Amino acid sequence: MVRASSSSNWLPAINAYYLGVPFPIEKAHIRNITAFNDNGNGGVDTKEKSKEMVKNCHYKERNHKDQSLFSAHKRLVALFVDSKSLSVDLKATILLFITSSFHHCCPSLHQFHMAPAQLLLVFLTIVLRFVSAQQNDGSVSVGASLTATSNLKPWLSSSGEFAFGFQQVKGTDNFLLSIWYDKIPDKTIIWYPEEGRMVPTGSKVELLRESGLVLTDPQGTEVWRSGSISGVASGFMNDTGNFVVFGGNSRKLWGSYDFPANTLLPTQVMERGGGMNSTISDANFSGGRFQLRLLPDGNLVLNTRDTLSGNTYDAYYISGTYDDSNSTNSGKQVIFDATGYMYILRRNGQRFDLTPRGSLPSGDYYHRATLDSDGVFRQYYFPKNPTSNTTWKVIWFVPDNICVDINDDSNTGACGFNNVCSFDGNQPNCECPQGFSLLDPNNPSGDCKPHFTPTCDEVGSNNGEDMFDFIELDNTDWPFSDYVHMNPSNENTCKSSCLEDCFCAVAIYRDTQCWKKKLPLSNGRKVASANVKAFIKYRIGDQPLKNPLGLPGKNKDRRTLIVVGSVLLGTSVFVIFVLTGVICVGFFVIYKKKPINTYSIRKAVETNLPSFTYQELVEATDGFKDELGKGGFGIVYKGVIGKKIVAVKKLNTVVHDSDKEFKTEVDTIAKTHHKNLVQLLGYCDEGDQRLLVYEYMSNGTLAMFLFGDSRPTWRQRSHIAVGIAKGLAYLHEECSTQIIHCDIKPQNILLDDYFNAKISDFGMAKLLMLNQSHTNTGIRGTKGYLAPEWFRNTPVTVKVDVYSFGVLLLEIISCRKSLVFESDDEGMVVLTDLAWDCYQEGRLEAFVENDMEALNDHKKLATFVMVGLWCVQENSSLRPTMRKVNQMLEGGIEVDF
């Protein structure tokens, strides 16, 4: 852009043009017209050519023909209009300047009898034409921005085939910054920033001179940026699908091709050491379990990984392009050329084919190679002139059968724990076996949880077939997880042995052999052999129903239900009408005589959750006998509804505002859906009785887990910490109504069957609309976890949760409580002080009490401690957001030590 200080120098030229008065151009104006080059918006050649063009027009002898001057002007106009590094505003200004000067240096123009107004009309027509062309040539000016809305107009490539902007994620209100095929009906996404973080409506991406591309949320918090770059001159969305950021002299600073998400495109190259991750699912673009890498040794591999730590497992596809006897025969690059042909280029120049040569001409088809969420690497094509209902077709894929090609007992396999993989054509399918359901309903290839209780529990030893039975699955196997192998055996012996063994969850029988296995089960798969059987053991009375609440009637024979229902329907219509009339008259008589008050008539809770009568919950909890825990607003009891174990929270009726707390909790939790939040299953709102029904968490509270007799593993603790951070980030930033928890502590974190953290107790949550930043409330929370602002009569924001999480994170790291009053050492009383001292003195081994697993993972340990200390800063504005915390804990943002 031309410097702001020189803008006034253009006014005489503009005024002269509007007035039709000749205006001689001075050398100062020549300097101004080329000033954009000094700011990195053009090359030396462009600067010299522009000066020469102007000199040709204004400083040559007057005996030059007007036609030659006109041609010089045309060349000058074309030079600036064709430039891809100039902004629209700068082009328009330069065109106005050139046109004004042309009016002076071409006096014969008047022979066309064109008045100034006519000249202006012609000029504006030209400018509008060029501005329109500029908007579609792929160029993006410094300062340009896009805001995430449903009617967003993206930055398009010149052909319109690719678009850069925000795309709304199906089934959510969130958006993904991405690049996509814009001429394909489903707008197929081919790039997004690492880890695929979704952002809410109102988020913005901007091209900044000193930062490059920067993505911020509606509150202005930075979510992502395109590396550490500066001196940005422009951006360009080109027709290969690569968005490039340029510096001065058209020097490339950053390109999306260099950071592939889960897709490669024609003309894209992957170097040694490069790679990309799958997504978790089609609707969740976070980094998934599968990874494609070109290793430093030259092999192209597919492998699974631990999404928490980033650790990789054994490869399930290897290209074989590593030659230890001849390094020049090893792979150097993965090349996806413009014709749609993909191969590995060896260091000696030879090629290792990945896709068939000459598969389809790229001029007629779009191509992409994607590592899909199921772990299969596929190359697709799509016709550029499609008919109706055209979809992407697969040319090639690896591995041949991912269900059996993954054989690593250190991870879950193609599907999650307890899940079963079957391969149909080129598509693996994951399905929970009977008696199990998905831990995350939005991730069909994820872990499956059992609907029945573990076989070894507080009830004591089992009595074999009197207490247990089997669900039998044909042609199903989990090849790992066994702890006993019996050979020879027969089917009855195999089953009996499992029934009498409280550790046995599943028995596999095949060819006179029996394998007994514990949960969780890994690498589940359907097998072709017809003589393989899996026997899943469940406690009689715990066999799950399809209805999560176990409502009666779901297990009945369908035809019987239809017959009985038809008879009842035919005989009950008249009765319903009569009863309805009687009830209406009865209510009218009763309430006409009785004053209306807030205790006799209560507003119905606006939710679609099932409601229960108080008596139903009394029976479900056996008279509220089995107490699980107690909080400030109620007691939680264990119960059974249908055949499903649940947790029933009974709110204290003596608390003045418990009714308000009840309404808050039901209305907010019913609208939240996240794998790290406890699921609300139902409620009771009867008279003065307020009860909530939750899913039951078999492993209790985090407090019991952390501060018990044995120390949990470092991997378990770090996994729990990240889960809590994700849950809080969801409450703060991803709900339609912002939620402050106000009482984050280990007692309010529950653990499911697989020790996944779930945040509970929203009874003390306060809601914030998205256009608010704070709320006023009385002090809430627990000593040791309270942020300083609770005691200062200052506004309470989501940063109080960040503070509490910081304390909790330090507890998780050290397995110590936040306050230990009985300690004789004064420095050990407050955990945050101990953490700071240990960190400052470089004694992390003292903080974790020589936990070797944690100390061997020193970088993560130091990161976690640093993040915890950052969260507990006294000044709330200095604390990070929970989104930022999550990014640091997962390694998405580097933490400097």
TrEMBL record:
Q: Which residues bind ATP?
A: 650
Tell me one Pfam family matched here: Pkinase
PROSITE patterns membership: BULB_LECTIN, PROTEIN_KINASE_ATP, PROTEIN_KINASE_DOM, PROTEIN_KINASE_ST
Question: Is Secreted tagged as a keyword?
Answer: no
Q: Which InterPro entries match?
A: Bulb-type_lectin_dom (IPR001480), Bulb-type_lectin_dom_sf (IPR036426), G-type_lectin_kinases/EP1-like (IPR051343), Kinase-like_dom_sf (IPR011009), Prot_kinase_dom (IPR000719), Protein_kinase_ATP_BS (IPR017441), S_locus_glycoprot_dom (IPR000858), Ser/Thr_kinase_AS (IPR008271)
| Keywords annotated in UniProt | ATP-binding, Disulfide bond, EGF-like domain, Glycoprotein, Kinase, Lectin, Membrane, Nucleotide-binding, Receptor, Serine/threonine-protein kinase, Signal, Transferase, Transmembrane, Transmembrane helix
Q: Key word Cell wall biogenesis/degradation present in the record? A: no
Q: What is its EC number?
A: 2.7.11.1
BP-aspect Gene Ontology terms: recognition of pollen
Cellular compartments annotated: Membrane
- Annotated Bulb-type lectin domain ranges read 137-258
- Catalytic activity, per the record? L-threonyl-[protein] + ATP = O-phospho-L-threonyl-[protein] + ADP + H(+); L-seryl-[protein] + ATP = O-phospho-L-seryl-[protein] + ADP + H(+)
Its membrane topology is listed as: Single-pass type I membrane protein
Major location category of this protein:
membrane
Report TM segments.
561-591
Q: Which GO terms describe its cellular component?
A: membrane
Query: Domain Protein kinase: where?
Result: 622-897
- Identify this protein by name: non-specific serine/threonine protein kinase
Species this chain originates from: Lactuca sativa
